[in-house]
Amino acid sequence: MTDIRDETTDGFRATFGYEPSGLWSAPGRVNLIGEHTDYNLGFVLPFAIDRRTVVALGLRDDRIARVASSFADEVVEIDLSRLDPAALDGWAAYPLGVAWALGARGADLAAVPGFDIFVESDVPVGAGLSSSAAIESAVALALNDVWQLGFDRPQLARVGQLAENEAVGAPTGIMDQSASLLGEKDCAVFLDCRSLESRIVELGLADAGLVVLIMDTGISHEHATGGYAERRASCELGARMLGVDSLRDLGVDDLPRARAELDDVTFRRVRHVVTENQRVLDTVAALASGGPRSIGDLLDASHRSMRDDFEISIAELDLAVETAQANGAIGARMTGGGFGGAAIALVATEDLSRVQVAIDGAFAEHGYGVPDTFVVTAAHGASREY
Ligand code: ADP
Ligand code: MG
User: 128 CA to middle of ligand 2, Å?
Assistant: First the structure.
């Protein structure tokens, strides 16, 4: 953490030629369970990870906003009076989209000063760990502070989502920003995507001698926008045909009727969402009663459901999951939107290196690209660093 904070301050100084007035950071997240349930207004259980995006900010005495990132060569500059989500593109749509979204949610942007922002991060991009929510949440918290807007964290999560939906143009739910803003150390965020109520849930991983291993296939999910939109459309179709507003209104008891009334593909999409919601509830209950060692079967079942019913897995994700399971993992599943990205495995510390070596070996044997495997811990949410 120290390194990246210093790098952010250095980057700010080198880019803008003065000292930032503060540093804010927000974590990426991994979703423990509850996939493609968010936009169906169901349940998710993500946690904030110990990889963060750091934002250094200085206020200006004019109305100009400039954003720079260690990921990009250019400094993007805009007049705050001319912020238009449709006109934003590239990476700068994330931070500048947040500035716009704060205004769209009620902040008086005509009354605020301009700013300079420099962004540094150790959240891997496009690996399903939500580097996008990390940058949105860090910027949202920073601007909320320096502009003294008084939004609370659930409101800031909605600001980040609005920026991603309107300025970036990605039709994503509220999960990522909620995890990044509300996460707590050693805990997950149990989020009801209909009421937007959230509850902190103790994970107890360290006490149980467990870690969460990220197995990043290195395959970007970026080209999968079509698949994501198609799954959303299937869910909407299923809900409409079954006469409910969203799939959240269905339980496992409704599945026989769903099978009778829907075509096979739509039925399987619906079955994934309905059973996944139940698995999130079961995971929260199991964590409380039996601790993290008791959730392995739920993780495994979640993966099967995404592979066979929702059909968003790929061969590399299946191999990572199966190899982890065969080498002692307590449970494993792909995580994130699918079609690439990463899988997670819940692993006892003593089995960690065996699992990692086995995954490297299995990928080499299949002629797949070298996967990146690393441990994440459940970390605190967005914060002001100084
Ligand atoms: P992820 O799964 O990592 O959230 P997304 O495609 O949703 O993948 O978001 C990644 C995009 O977010 C990047 O392509 C970039 O435009 C933007 N982004 C994330 N982190 C940074 C950063 N530190 N600096 C600049 N842009 C970033
Ligand atoms: Mg993202």
Answer: 7
Locate the domains of the chain by residue range.
2-201+380-384, 204-376
Which tens digits make up the pLDDT trace of 296-342?
A: 999 999 999 999 999 999 999 999 999 999 999 999 999 988 898 89
CATH second-level architecture of 2-201+380-384? 2-Layer Sandwich (3.30)
Q: To the nearest whole number, what is the mean pLDDT of the chain? A: 96
Around ion ligand 2, which residues have CB less than 5 A away? 130, 132
Work out the number of other CB atoms within 10 angstroms of the CB of residue 1.
12
CA distance 117 to 374: 29
Instruction: State the catalytic residue, choosing from 176, 216, 300, 309.
Output: 176
Alpha-carbon radius of gyration of the chain: 21
String of DSSP letters for 8-30:
HHHHHHHHHSS--SEEEEEEEEE
Model's pTM, two decimal places?
Answer: 0.94
Active site residue 84: no
Instruction: Tell me, using a 6 A CB cutoff, whether residue 94 lines ligand 1.
Output: yes
Residue identifier of the C-alpha nearest atom 18 of ligand 1: 132
- What is 204-376's CATH superfamily? GHMP kinase, C-terminal domain (3.30.70.890)
C-beta 18 within 6 A of ligand 1: no
